[in-house]
Amino acid sequence: MELSDSARTLLQIWKDSYMSTRDKIEQSGKGARWEFDRTRLFPRTDYCILISRNLSEIAVLLVEFENFFGPEIKAVVGDPRKIEEALRKTYLLAKPFIDVEFDPFVPANGKLWAELLERLRKDVQVLEAEAKSFIDEAFSTIKYKKYCTHYFKNNSDIELKTNWIPLVSIDLLTVHLKC
């Protein structure tokens, strides 16, 4: 997560530095106009920023699921093996990104990247439904109601929502594929 955040920051700083330097040269009135073709200079940078952002958001998503399926939820769900299985599925969400067989930072691979993100979105929806069923199951069992109340009081910042990651659509990637 830190590496992708650093990469995104570095790329953004480079782009901002270019724009700032260009503005300073033009405002000074000294020398010739300093301009490069921005349509050729920045699309790949913007695309790499986008991929770096996706990677950071995926890492955050995995950490959030890992935290949710921790020891506290095991205490409120009748069968802890279900939680262990959900945690295993959480780790499997990362596998396609770890084993990726193409360079996601190459704009020509944008459609492949978008397909991976779409698959992730679907897998996340399934995992979220499972998490919600665990919560429902725990609250429906009188024996666990007091534990559930305690758990959610102490973990009120945990919220499962499908839009954790603004997963990039193919349309948005298409803009960057033209570079």
Topology overview:
Layout: H1 2-28, H2 38-41, H3 43-68, H4 71-76, H5 80-98, H6 110-140, H7 142-154, H8 170-177
Helix pairs in contact: 1-3, 3-5, 3-8, 5-6, 6-7, 6-8
The percentage helix is over 70%
Order of helices and strands: HHHHHHHH
Report the sheet-strand fraction.
Answer: under 5%
User: Biggest β-sheet: count, sense, barrel?
Assistant: none
Parts with pLDDT < 50 across at least 5 consecutive residues = 158-179
Describe this structure in words.
With 179 residues, the protein is mostly helical. It has one domain (2-177). 75% of the residues lie in helices and 0% in strands. It contains eight helices and no strands. The protein has helices spanning 2-28, 38-41, 43-68, 71-76, 80-98, 110-140, 142-154, 170-177. It is elongated.
Features:
single chain; 179 residues; mainly alpha; 75% helix
Short recap of the structure:
By secondary structure, this protein is an all-alpha fold. The protein contains eight helices and no strands. It has helices spanning 2-28, 38-41, 43-68, 71-76, 80-98, 110-140, 142-154, 170-177.
